[in-house]
Amino acid sequence: MSRHEQARYQIERQRRQELFNQRVSETTRVYLDRYRNILNDVQNQGISKYVQAEFSALQRELETLKWLVDSDPATARDRSIALGQQVHALPRHARAMRQAVVEAERAAEHVAQEEVREAVRQRAEQETKAREEVETVWQNELTNWDDPLARQLAFKALAELRRHLLDSNHHTTVEQLRAELGNIKHEYEQRSQERRTQEYQTAVASTTEDSLQLCREQIAAASRQAPEHAAAFAATLDTASSLSPEELSRRMVEVTSELDTVVVDESCRREVVQAVYRSLEDAGFVMEKPRLVNKDDSNEVVIRAMRPAGAKAEFKIELSGKLNYKFDHYQGSACKKDIDTVLPRLQSIYGIQLSTERVVWENPDDKDSDARPQPGMTREK
């Protein structure tokens, strides 16, 4: 009786264990399948890479429990329960890590962009500073050009240099700029000097011709007063036109000076001629028209006058200021009387001052009616 009961109990215990293992295995496999689905879902969403270490560890644990559930369902169950918290937390953890990575990437991108912007800003500042320095040197160098013509002639070359050196893609140093500007300055200062020399020669030629024309006009204006001298001066200018500008200028100065002297001398002689003529006329002489006499090297104006009784007076006025006069065909002291009448009148009325009187020939008074005294005197006016 008792044996039977014990055997039945043992059978029940074994059966119970089998049922327990079966149930635990089934429920554990359900959990393990669910866990595997969660891991697959995480992998399919592409977020497993953000928790790769945890994901791999869970996969290995699932594989272990897969075999353990057959040999030791209870242990597999217990370990699966602990594993469940990790598996269920994995998706949220993966998404959080993905967000963290995204934010980190954004932050890194922002930092990188800031670094790029800062580098660009610093480079721009450096380029701006360098450009400003180059611009300052440009202005200073051009300001130091003393020759405005050279600067104007170099305008095109300077504009081309500015486009080339100050281009944003061209890194120009101050030394390069100074060297380039120095070369252009040297070249165009030479061109400016050549241009100035050419213009000066043209101006000198034009001025020389103008001076010649003016001198000819002065000679032509003086031809009425001194025709012979004017003709000689004109001939001198004609032969001098082929001379160098310096020699021609010297020759024109000489001609102009001589012309002025001749014209002034002629004007003075004209005044003396008029004074002598009027003095004789006022003294009662019958006047002849004054005549210009050119003989050998002499040039004199001859004034002749006579009295009804036959007495004669003759004055010769030279350009040099020399005045010769002669009173003849007089009887008695009448000659001296006329001299004392005419000569003082020249001085007192007409302002002709006579000096260095020299008697060339004189005949004393003679009462004989046949005698004709012929006094002659020379004076410098």
Structure description:
The structure is a single chain. The protein has four domains: 2-110; 145-209; 210-260; 266-380, Double Stranded RNA Binding Domain. The protein is 70% helix and 11% strand. It has nine helices and seven strands, in the order H-H-H-H-H-H-H-H-E-E-E-E-E-H-E-E. It has helices at 2-44, 52-71, 73-143, 148-153, 155-165, 174-222, 227-240, 245-282, 334-348; strands at residues 286-287, 291-295, 298-306, 312-318, 322-328, 355-361, 376-380. Strands 1, 2, 3, 4, 5, 6 and 7 form a seven-stranded antiparallel β-sheet that branches. Strand 4 and strand 5 (322-328) form a beta hairpin. The N and C termini lie far apart (203 Å).
The helix fraction, in percent, is over 70%
Gyration radius over CA? 69 Å
- Total count of domains: 4
Order of helices and strands: HHHHHHHHEEEEEHEE
The first-level CATH class name of the largest domain: Alpha Beta
Please report the distance between the alpha carbons of the first and last residues.
203 Å
What class would the helix/strand composition place it in?
alpha+beta
The CATH topology of the largest domain is Double Stranded RNA Binding Domain
Mean pLDDT: 78
Tally of alpha and pi helices: 9
Region (Disordered): 361-381
Key features of this structure:
disordered C terminus; alpha+beta; 381 residues; 70% helix
Layout of helices and strands:
Layout: H1 2-44, H2 52-71, H3 73-143, H4 148-153, H5 155-165, H6 174-222, H7 227-240, H8 245-282, E1 286-287, E2 291-295, E3 298-306, E4 312-318, E5 322-328, H9 334-348, E6 355-361, E7 376-380
Antiparallel strand pairs: 1-3, 2-3, 3-4, 4-5, 5-7, 6-7
